[in-house]
Amino acid sequence: MQKKSIFWYLTAPLRFLYKIYFLLVFFALAFLLYPFFFVLLRSKRHVHKAFKLKRFWAKVLLVLTWVRVKINGKENLVKEPCVICANHASYLDIVVMFVAIPNTFLFLGKAELLKWPVVRIFFRNMDIPVDRSNSFKARESIEQTKEAIQKGFSIAIFPEGLIPVENVPKMKPFKRGAFVLAMSQEAPIQPITFSTNWKLFATESHPFGAGCPGVSKVVIHPAINTKGLKENQMTRLIQQTFEVIESGMENEKKSR
Question: Is 248 exposed, middle or buried (0-12, 13-18, 19+ CB in 10 A)?
Answer without folding.
Answer: buried
